[in-house]
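Researcher: I'd like a structural prediction for the single chain below. Treat it as a standalone chain; there are no partners to consider.
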Amino acid sequence: MDEGVEEVVRRDDTTSALESRARGLSAVSVDLDRPLLAADQPPGVAPVVGNVTDFGTAVSLVKCAIGAGSLALPWAFQQGGLWFSFCFTCVLGVISTYTVGLLITCERKVLRQIHDRRQSEESTVSARRSTELRVPAPHRYLAQKHANRQQLMYPEVALHAFPDTTFLWRGRTPINGAQIIVDVGIVLTAVGVCAAYLDFLAATLPDVLGSWCNQAYATLLVTPLLIGLVLLRSFRYLSFTAALGDFSVSAALIAVIAYGFANTKDYGYVDFGLRAANPVGFGRFFGSVSLLFNIQIVVLPVAHAMEKPESFHRVNRSSYVFITLVNALFGFLCYGLFGNDVANPVTGVFGDNLSEVAAATLDAVKILLCVDLLFTFPFLFAAGREIVERVVINALFGVMDGVEHPHRRSSGFHLSGEKSLADKEVPIFSEDGLGEDAGAVQGAAAELEHRSQSPSTPPQSQRRAIEMTRNITRFAILGVIVGITFGVPCFGDMVNIVGGVVNSIMGFVLPCAIALRVLANELSPTMKAVNVAIIIFGLAACGVSLTYTIIDMTDPDHEC
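Model: Treating it as a single chain, here is the predicted structure.
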């Protein structure tokens, strides 16, 4: 998950990193590969249509899964063996294709359930007492906020898939456990990828700046620049970096392979006689591939932005064929060319005995990569800090209400000195949450939506206090990332932690678990077994990858 996050964020001038102008649809084993018809729309809500073509969507998906993280693949192939790694990369590509489409399908099914439930509630009072509506009142309070929505994000899909995980925090505030898990996963992914990028910058800059600069100095050198970038209120000033990112990553991939073939003295050919398989090294191999392929936290905004959302499933399949082949071939060729000399990242393999032109070209590629990652950092950072800001501001100021767009969740918040609606309305919750309580909860949600669309202006002093809190929160998160970089200075270790642990859960385990709940009546027994197998695989791979990463990090002889 790399440059595509930046592309998603650039479509919106707000600070929302994953909730850009979103539209979407997909399908698996049920007939969901169609847009919502007019009859399916909530009353008074027009269909949502994006403006991104199928080709543009494919480009966004490719940018998500081919980027700076691809430079860790050759080392991963060395750990897993040449042919084992190539084949298993293809297998992981197939699984990721399936889980990405599965998440989009679940979102569409959840939306239809929400709209059908609302129509049932409005038609007859007896419908409220149906089995389908027997969910805890605290959960229905959260769900009612989405009654007019045509788009959901990953945490919201999890919320509706697992209503039985909703509980009252401190006896008054409805909170959904599944939504919390996904939110935490997004934060950990954002922080981890940012730390990996900072590791890459710290390891690469000394090669360009000279011997006076070591990894610690490089980290301190870029930190002031990162402070300025994470405080930006609009990403429009960074729009020029989109083309720079595409060019720099492409140039790096091409330069590495060209260097391997051109340097006939040391390399010059692909050695097919290298170790074919090393199953013991799977724990070190898995993280790099998982980091690239598991882009589920950004696919919903990408899908939502489509001009023809009904074609997402086809675009997803074709995009992942390209993504899988490029990543698999790059790892295969680089390990075959450099053998046991391969570095992590692979740009570290560039030698010193080069002509002036070759050395200048390779240095230029490194500089472009560093500049690109520097400007990509705030986009990834925003994906996690937005969630943390919301929690911190709510805890300090009692601000519960997010500005709810009629079709999607927004990143803005309006301020109020009053108690939250959740605080006010919790007393109406009965044990089963039925009967008159359902109407009261729906009324509370309607009031929430009305207030969110017409927010009151907070006092100037409160606005200043909240703005200061936002900045302090950003400083704190950045400080955590810098601290992680000093604690885990190896780019490969950081990639394995994020890809092998967090992305494995977010990309393999949770989408399949959500599907087993949301699509329980549509999935065949065979497909249910497939989903269970993927969950077991994701958990096992997560444990193995974490174990090997801890072993490496605690090894005093471990080298980056």
